[in-house]
Amino acid sequence: MNKLHPEKIATLALQSLLAELSATPKPGLIDRNNSGAHQDMDFFMMQKSASVLAFYFLQFAEIGREFHGNAADLFIAVREKGKIAEDAMFKATSGINTHKGALFSFGIICAAAGYLSTHQYSQVLCKDICDFIREMTEGICRKELVQMKLAGALTHGEAVYLKYQVPGIRGEVENGFPHVRNFAYPILAQLLKEGRYSMDTVFSHTLLYLMANVVDTNVLYRHQMETVTYVQQSAQSVLQKGGCLTDTGLQAVYELDQEFIKKGISPGGCADLLAVTYFLYSLENCR
């Protein structure tokens, strides 16, 4: 059994963010080798941002543990605390958006895990969390994107939806993280179970599956749909070479990193989902 307490949930959340950050190589993304396509942030700023958010991960989990209303009301409570956490992140990074997307996902997951562990389950499975998150966020795309009020500055996600009708992370959470469950989680769990590969290999290889299948709104906001297609096709090509599990595929990943840096492409949405994948795996498999 893996009875989860808020402190454990928060610890696993922080570990997941730091593990994703440290995984190397990651095309166009910050890793231990370089800052990818980013010129305004680096490895150390990302570490600092993640560390600041750890305090709020604990609070999200405690909100879930102590909550007695319905799932939709729990989401509202998490959203309010999320605004405070976001302000703390921006203060720590001097206004740089390091983890806004990840914070949205992780806050919801922490609260869901806290609620389920206390109210229903002694073991919290990935499926349980994702199903409960669907209840928490039902209708979010309609309320926040389809019926958005065009007042003030749009968020990146809102701007992308307005132009392309791609729901981004809101669509991902409302549907219970389908790209994580269908593509990333199975391969990450399989590779970890085999125990033959380093964490770098497991994470970088799993990232390729996300890049090949996700319409990354971070890429879409800064470029166009043709660039998203290029990212997907590039990842598929690398996977056909064996991905990070072969020398040829791994060399292709390093080459793709340089190409993405030159083109200013950073699949940050996929990076966030990679961290989500490991967080959900850790919650299900912690002892």
UniProtKB/TrEMBL annotation:
It comes from the Bacteria. Keywords: ATP-binding, Nucleotide-binding, Transferase. GO terms for molecular function: ATP binding; triphosphoribosyl-dephospho-CoA synthase activity. The keyword Nucleus does not apply. The keyword Translocase does not apply. Its EC number is 2.4.2.52. It catalyses: 3'-dephospho-CoA + ATP = 2'-(5''-triphospho-alpha-D-ribosyl)-3'-dephospho-CoA + adenine. One of its GO terms (biological process) is prosthetic group biosynthetic process. InterPro entries: CitG, TriPribosyl-deP-CoA_syn_CitG. HAMAP family: CitG. NCBIfam families: citrate_citG. Belongs to the CitG/MdcB family. This is Probable 2-(5''-triphosphoribosyl)-3'-dephosphocoenzyme-A synthase. It comes from Flexilinea flocculi. The lineage of its organism: Bacteria, Bacillati, Chloroflexota, Anaerolineae, Anaerolineales. The gene is citG.
